[in-house]
Amino acid sequence: MSYSIGEFSQLVGLSADTLRYYEKENLIYPNRDKNNRRVYTDEDKSWLLFILRLKETAMPIKQIKTYARLRYEGDKTSQERMHLLLEHRKFMLEQRRTLDENIDHLNRKIANYQKQLNERQGIQS
Amino acid sequence: MSYSIGEFSQLVGLSADTLRYYEKENLIYPNRDKNNRRVYTDEDKSWLLFILRLKETAMPIKQIKTYARLRYEGDKTSQERMHLLLEHRKFMLEQRRTLDENIDHLNRKIANYQKQLNERQGIQS
DNA sequence: ATACTTGTTGGAGTTAACTCCATGTCAAAT
DNA sequence: ATTTGACATGGAGTTAACTCCAACAAGTAT
Predict the structure, then answer these.
(1) Do A78 and B114 touch (CB under 8 A)?
(2) How far is CA A96 from CA A92, B59, B87, B95, in A?
(3) B84-121 b/e with 16+ CB inside 10 Å = b?
(4) pLDDT, average across residues A10-19
(5) Interatomic CA distance for residues B113 and A81, integer angstroms
(6) Which residues of chain B neighbour A96 with C-beta distances below 8 Å?
(7) Which ranges of A57-77 does DSSP label H, i.e. alpha helix?
């Protein structure tokens, strides 16, 4: 399957402008037809979805760019890419640790609020 | 204990400019001394550390501002604040779900790379 | 043939969250 | 008495990640 920028935009949930922006930033460059229009493939799709995963875990575009460059350079860079992924996994695990800690803290904070509200309730009744 | 902006800056790991910026955004307003200089207290400290937790979990300053406003309005708003915290907990749990999913996906991706590299190794030897 | 739709580019504008800077004030050190 | 140092304010500048727009191109619908 192949998609125009409009279709692709729908498919992945990004605006056409954003797609063109990503292209300018060298994250993804689709082929063009005889009319110079962008033609996205299913491969572009899975690649973009991966990019979105990276974004979802707060990887800045600059860093994604590095990965993209390696990818477009082909097979010979797979070791490097793997290294990058391992690094990113570390980062994500760290992120999860922080998140868990914050959830914990929030839970305690909420429990406190609850206690206080109950006490006040007690006084009023 | 009370701190000048410089000391406080060290204490919480934000630049003085950032602290003044947060003040402009109404996240935190310390008292002033007779000389109009900011005087931060330990209460300001724990409040700011809480702000940083919220930031760490990607709460935008605008939303933190809402919470700050309620806080500075005093006890009568604690119900509202609690509601806000509950909402934020939902958001954080959602964040964790996404993160776990992405870690999973990344693990599979890494496993794939590993397999491919092994296969190539196999061919070469 | 003309209008409409969807695309193209280059470049300007926007928002969030800082960050930097010029100019000025005051207390402390020399 | 002057220099130094930390701080004050107002406002400009920066970076990331879009978002919008004007002007043009080409295929499609009426």
Answers:
(1) no
(2) 6, 16, 19, 9
(3) bbeebbeebeebbeebeebbeebeebeeebeeeeeeee
(4) 98
(5) 9
(6) 96, 99-100, 103
(7) 61-73
Residue type for A93, please?
L
B125 — pLDDT class (breaks 50, 70, 90): low
Bridge partners for B40 per DSSP: B3
Distance from CA(B6) to C1'(D6), angstroms, rounded? 8
Residue A57 to residues A67, A89, A104, B18, Cα–Cα distance (Å): 15, 10, 20, 25
Buried b (16+ CB within 10 A) or exposed e, B16-36: eeebeebeeeebbebeeeeee
Which contiguous run of DSSP H or E holds residue B45? helix B42-56
The sign of the CA dihedral B19, B24, B25, B28 is positive
Residues 6+ apart with CB under 8 A from B95: A99, B57, B58
Among chain A residues, CA nearest to B83 = A110
Residues 6+ apart with CB under 8 A from A11: A3, A45
- pLDDT above 60 (res B29): yes
- Confidence band for B124, pLDDT divided at 50, 70 and 90: low
Percent of chain B whose pLDDT exceeds 70: 98
Distance CA B7, CA A79 (A): 46
Q: Which residue is nearest to nucleotide C17 (CA to C1')?
A: B61
Where on strand D do bases come within 7 A of a protein Cβ? 6-9, 16-21, 26-27
